[in-house]
Amino acid sequence: MPHPAERRLVFRHIDEPGYxxxxxCYLRHGGYEALRKSVARKPEELVDEVKKSGLRGxxxxxxxxxxxxxxxxRRSGKPVYLIANADESEPGTFxxxxxxxxxxxxxxxxxxxxxxxxxxxxxxxxxxxxFSQGARILEQAIAEARAQRxxxxxxxxxxxxxxxxxHRGAGAYICGEETxxxxxxxxxxxxxxxxxxxxxxxxxxxxxxxxxxxxxxxCHVKHIADMGGEAFAKIGTLNNTxxxxxxxSGHVRRPGYYEVESGKITLxxxxxxxCGGPPPGRKFKAVIPGGSSSKILRFGERFKIRQQDGSxxxxxxxxxPMDFDSLAACGSMGGSGxxxxxxxxxxxxxALANLNAFYAHESCGQCTPCREGSLWMKKxxxxxxxxDARPQDGELLKSVADQIAGRTVCPFGEACxxxxxxxxxxFGDEFKGGADARKHPxxxxxxxx
Length: 449
Ligand SMILES: Cc1cc2nc3c(=O)[nH]c(=O)nc-3n(C[C@H](O)[C@H](O)[C@H](O)COP(=O)(O)O)c2cc1C
Description:
Blueprint: H1 23-28, H2 33-39, H3 43-53, H4 65-70, E1 81-86, H5 96-102, H6 104-118, E2 122-127, H7 132-147, E3 163-168, H8 178-185, E4 210-214, H9 215-227, H10 229-233, E5 236-237, E6 240-241, E7 243-250, E8 256-261, H11 267-274, E9 284-288, E10 297-298, E11 302-306, E12 312-316, H12 324-329, E13 338-343, H13 348-362, H14 368-385, H15 393-402, H16 412-426
Parallel strand pairs: 1-2, 1-4, 2-3, 7-13
Antiparallel strand pairs: 5-6, 7-8, 9-10, 9-13, 11-12
Helix pairs in contact: 2-6, 2-9, 3-6, 5-6, 6-9, 13-14, 13-16, 14-15, 14-16, 15-16
């Protein structure tokens, strides 16, 4: 059951008793009506609706969707492609999977509306390799939709044709990065491309203009087409419109997913009211607010934020509104909406060692600072966990991270450096090496290499 403080749009039917992922059920609930309305309108009107809606991408960066669409370079006359990014690889994030499993037609309708708006004739859903059940569900749903002329040739008798193909990745975090994803879709090793010149809107899939949008973003497009851009913009707050799917894991009593109006609830309300607070007898210590790459927030730290009217507000972590801009103003980010919560029993060195093991494993190896640096961060935190830290290790760890961020082809560099930089900055006492190093109780953590 949704919490009363939630506002469900994309997740309206998720977990609803009797709601099944097949086409008849979707049609009974008003499915594909937004597509029917959309194909009766001019494509550019829909692009305008999405611009008016203020929708920002839900895959991580929060880039305005309508702006992204209007950057498509059509001068060459090459075909335009659309890719739904269903890689969902950011640790702590598990929203797209629920959409795919329980409401796949919502995504397909969002894709078809976006394709009509941008006159795309071929779309792909790039789904991570581990989501084999999700891939099967999508293939089945596309087949059902094709049989009813909702996908494929002559959509709804309009003469407009558009195919959707499901492409399975092989399970690599870097394939979520849009240019790595495009390389992988082309059948190559997923080394991210340099921007410029390889902005997908200009030189994307097969060197053609390409839209890459997150699964949740494309679902919001369906609701924008349904209710209109202005109505959507009234949900949430001025620069952070609509609802947001938030995935909460870790030390809360009710972990799971929640859909809330952007910026209308604070981090404290989310964690205490919706998620039931910390486990009995515990206090919150820290939270990673937007997927594992976002900078950690320490309970107890305070932020002086300058408001638009010139006044200053003093926020604790609990007071931060859950939206892109407020989290950015506090030095972190809304990212992919995956919150990882840690209570006062958490060993921050062990937690960072875990993250660093992940990033070292997932670095694609194209750029030296990331390939070498991520491995060094893993090694240093692993020896801290095992109580073998050297006197200078705290400093060394920070300096390695500082030399990765900003020096790589793609934002994986920042993604792997930010956790280390923020953990060491905010929990410095736990990262002392040498004589002060303690034997960590979790010495069974990542193996020392
Ligand atoms: C290392 C890395 C991993 C990423 N993983 C994902 C992912 O799993 N899913 C996703 O939608 N976006 C991911 N992104 C963001 C994409 O590059 C891209 O910005 C996004 O798909 C655009 O969609 P949006 O505008 O709808 O947010 C990742 C970015 C980076 C740097």
